[in-house]
Amino acid sequence: MSSTTGRRGFLKGASAFASVLVAGRWGTLSAAQIFKSPHGKALAGVFPIGWTPCTPDNRLDLQRMVAQCEFVNKGKVAGIAWPQNASGWQSLSSEEWHSGADALLSVKGKSAIVLGVQTVGFDTSKSVEYAKYAGAKGADAIISLTPPGASDEEIIAYFKALSSASQLPMMVQAVGDVSVDTLVALSKALPSLMAVKDEAGDPLQRWPSLRERVDGKLEDFSGAGGHTFFAEMEEGFLGTCPYVGLSDVLQRSFELHQAGKKTEAYDAFGSFLAFESLPHANEYVLVARGVFPEDAIMRSNPPAERAAAPAPARRGPRSPITEAEKEEIRLALRTYLKRYLVA
User: Fold this and answer.
1) Residue 37 maps to a domain
2) Cα dist. 328→7, 285, 332 in Å?
């Protein structure tokens, strides 16, 4: 299917994930307002931020990149986005970015592939190169953080350049001091902008004003590890960008909520939160589920960048994971979460 730049080209009607209405306190979003990729994939639901798995000597592990994407597809998760903050995107060379993108795109499945195209220093020409590559190689959408310290005019110009280069639907990851006013201006200027991953403030507080001002023509996603997703679904959010490990559980909760089975959706979400409370659960879950080997390491952003990036609150530094903690994670997966696991 060829790509198109107009919003009408992306709004294709009911999707596999949203054939019913999404009801929230602020009204009802019909399935006709959900974006679809040029390949017909619904751009709504759970879009985990992919890890960047490496071998013990810190070389990009392309086999595990593929395994991660296959895991998302087997879990019937809406899609995967890579590389963003959780992927350690600042640490990637251009060669690694291209190799990682190729690995994800080599997996032919129903989950959408969203490629992150921001570059260190927010070099527009380099980001345009990445965006062109994403469009040419068959990605479903692109995503970029907002350039730090940029004016509204500069932000709009940056995303217009990416849109023109890729010809794909686009998601903006709002960080720093990006205001609702800026997001409204960006939405009006760019018909291809389909969603915002809002991390520039409390998305639940910002969403009512944002939605009203863009007339429902922008989907709202969140981050924060998916820990506030149920409250967001109640307000009509159409997606979240958590970590990968339990993305199939969150996708199940999303689908149940959309089908009006809110009690079942609440139970699934509660099981997700209970698992997340286990020490080292998020870091170890993909090892426990057979996706990554025990000795895999994950790329992270440089320390200064990590300090500036939004992150959930922690209880303090943790000791290395113990064998007992590993077994507790496996026990929770096979005992308490088994009914929700798809992958």
Assistant:
1) no
2) 47, 11, 6
CA atoms within 13 A on the CB side of 149: 2
**30 assigned to some structural domain:** no
DSSP assignment string, 122-164: --HHHHHHHHHHHHHHT-SEEEEEPPTT--HHHHHHHHHHHHH
In a domain, 134, yes or no: yes
- Per-residue buried b or exposed e for 49-86, using 16+ beta carbons within 10 Å of the residue's own CB: bbbbbbeeeeebbbebbebbbbbbbebbbbbbbbbbbb
Q: Return the amino acid letter for 3.
A: S
CATH number (domain holding residue 183): 3.20.20.70
- Which residues does residue 221 pair with via DSSP β-bridges, in sequence order? 197
Place of tokens 């709002």: 174
What's the pLDDT score for residue 316? 41
The whole-number mean pLDDT for each consecutive block of 10 residues of the chain, a chain of 343 residues, reads: 39 35 38 79 96 96 98 98 97 97 97 97 97 98 96 96 96 94 95 93 93 88 93 94 98 96 97 97 97 96 58 52 97 96 87
Domain around 298:
45-310+319-335
What are the E-state strand segments in the chain?
Answer: 22-24, 27-29, 45-46, 53-54, 79-82, 112-116, 141-145, 170-174, 193-198, 219-221, 239-240, 297-298
Instruction: Count structural domains, the chain.
Output: 1
The residues, any chain, with a CB within 8 Å of residue 59's CB and separated by 6 or more, are none
The residues pairing with 174 across neighbouring beta strands, listed in sequence order, are 198
40 within some domain: no
